[in-house]
Amino acid sequence: MKTMPVIQRNFFRLLRSGTFGRKDEPLEPMSEWKWDRLCQLALMHGVGALVADGIKAYSDDFFLRLSDRQKDNWHRITEETEERNKETDMCLAELFDTFNHAHLRPILLKGQGFASLYDRPGHRSGGDIDIYFPYKPQAEKADAWAIEHGTEKDESDRNMLKYFRHGIKIEHHKQMMYLTNTLLNRRLQKIIDSEIRCCDSAYRIINGTKIEIVPHTLSLLIIIVRMARYIMNEGISLKQLIDFGMFLRKEGDKVDFVKLQKWIGKLQLQHMALLEGALLVKLMKFDEDELPFINFKNDTDTTTITDDIFDMNGSHTVDWFFTQGKHVFVTTSNSNAMLWHIRHTAKFFKYYPAEIFTNFFASFARSLSRIEE
Q: Is residue 333 in some structural domain?
């Protein structure tokens, strides 16, 4: 942390305070321009309202010098995040009431389920509503309902149906999570199917509605796999890292860590889980004892991944796809993004070699599929 510029050091102090109530370091002085850059960084990572909570906690700090314009801006960011979460919670409750009444067994993935763990649930920036239907007949009925009652339907992805309801994007997932390595994915799907069918269900109450979520031990595995996939394709997501820490703090006592460790071994996730755990320890100041399923024998270098946190150029995988012009030649729409992805794959190869190799070619194939016939 000592090598980080002052903007980044203050950013993590405020973020730790706004999420985990940690206020053990004083702020350092910054100019108005640097405070604007910090705000930009918070918005880029979808943690604006959480950093605003940190600013409130540091309100008596001598070096917290914000202009009236900046104070108004942080207030606006918080209000907009709260309003969006209210709209999402209302839509979520309506959907689950409808699907539960029809006995379709919807299971909420990530998103608002994680938000309910936060001290201020409305301050976690929401996104889509992701729903998993474990049984095919019920999933087909849910899709039929969505096609009839939703707007802007998108069935182009064979693994999910996308649509909008009350301005909120909804995704019906056919798989809770997947890996591109065929053998590892088969193992993952077996774990998911077994846990969904044999284990006690878990629930949250959101907007007065009982919402089924992923069972606790499986949920932590899915968090680790999701973070791994995001790291391989985009770099670290601070929202996912905070969800990881929040889940451990609030739900860790309900997790079977022996079972989780066996799953991590079956999926060859040990090195990637170690990297994710090291990030939680170094950036969010967690104790290694809070992650009993990770072996912290070696001092894991997190520099390669924290560099991506502060990359504000945005030329990542999402910009890497191919198009066909007037001639027979196929070109990438963003060569910088393609080069970034190649370097990124090489950089993280050692953390998950069994998956990252197939992941790279799967990304390549997806980009080629976008060529017009």
A: yes
pLDDT in tens, 148-174: 999 999 998 888 999 999 999 999 999
Count of domains observed in the chain: 4
Q: How far is CA 352 from the centre of its chain?
A: 18
Place of tokens 């309902």: 145
Same domain, 192 and 258: no
Provide the 10 A C-beta neighbour count for residue 146: 23
Q: In 10 A of CB 346, how many CB atoms?
A: 11
| 342-353: pLDDT as tens digits | 676 777 778 888
On whether both 89 and 196 belong to a single domain, the answer is yes
Same-domain check for residues 344 and 267: no
Instruction: Tell whether 278 is covered by a domain.
Output: yes
pLDDT tens for each residue of 16-58 = 999 999 998 999 999 999 999 999 999 999 999 999 999 999 9
Instruction: With respect to residue 300, please indicate whether it lies within any of the assigned structural domains.
Output: no
Beta bridge partners of 108: 131, 213
The model carries a pTM of 0.88
The letter for the amino acid at 133 is: F
Adjacent-strand bridge partners of 213: 108, 202
Q: Check if the beta carbon of residue 64 is closer than 8 Å to that of residue 97.
A: no
Domain of 252 in residue numbering reads as 215-293
Look at residue 330 and give its three-state secondary structure. strand
- What do you get for the CA distance between the two ends of the chain, in Å? 50
User: Same domain for 89 and 199?
Assistant: yes
Could you tell me if 288 and 295 are in contact, meaning their C-beta atoms sit under 8 angstroms apart? no
